[in-house]
Amino acid sequence: MSWVNVAIAVGSAVYSGYQSNKQSNAMKAAGRDPLRRDRKKYAADLMALLDDPSSLYSMPMYQAAFGEGQQAVTRNMAAQGYLGSGNMAVGLQKYGMSFGYDMFDKYSKFLANLAGFEFDNRDSSAMVAGGQQAYLGTQDMLGQLGAIWGTYGPKGSAGTPAGGGGGMTTGM
């Protein structure tokens, strides 16, 4: 299964959740709530996720989608001749950070909607802006480290990193 198929499956699941929530809200407005009995469970699931955000990493849905994307980044870097390089490490780090943040954001909002919480995203714009600045600062730092490693790091034959293209992995 390619990362595109995984992305489509995740997007489809999120959209289905959105549509279900929309229908649920219409039913609530009419005095019927099909998820009334399950809302406490979803709220507990959301609180567990907020208490331990890293629990998302062990979910099969996350692992499958992340693994496909990680392989795509690795193949792309290998095709460009960066296998095992600092550029590859930066690419994997960038992918892991953005993927993890996006999945956490979407899954937590999905659970919140199932639990019956309403969101006004305008209230969180300052938090998002701060998070984006931190993310961009980290990416800049990683880019600089990759450039330094590429310039001063150990070189093997033909300008490749010493030790060949050892399998780089992320901790996620």
Structural descriptors:
0% strand, mainly alpha, 69% helix, 172 residues, 5 helices
Please give a structural write-up:
69% of the residues lie in helices and 0% in strands. By secondary structure, the chain is mostly helical. It has one domain (3-154). Helix 1 (3-29) packs antiparallel against helix 3 (60-79), helix 2 runs antiparallel to helix 4 and helix 3 packs antiparallel against helix 4 (86-115). The chain is elongated. Mean pLDDT is 75; it is low at 163-172.
- Helix-strand pattern, N to C? HHHHH
Tell me what portion of residues adopts beta-strand conformation.
under 5%
Return residue spans where pLDDT drops below 50 for at least 5 consecutive residues. 163-172
What is the distance, rounded to the nearest whole angstrom, between the alpha carbons of the first and last residues?
20 Å
**Count, helices:** 5
Main sheet summary: none
The portion of residues assigned to helices is: 55-70%
Mean pLDDT across the residues is 75
Radius of gyration: 20 Å
Number of domains: 1
Q: Which class best fits the helix and strand makeup?
A: mainly alpha
Number of strands: 0
Oligomer state of the chains in this structure:
single chain
What is the molecular shape? elongated
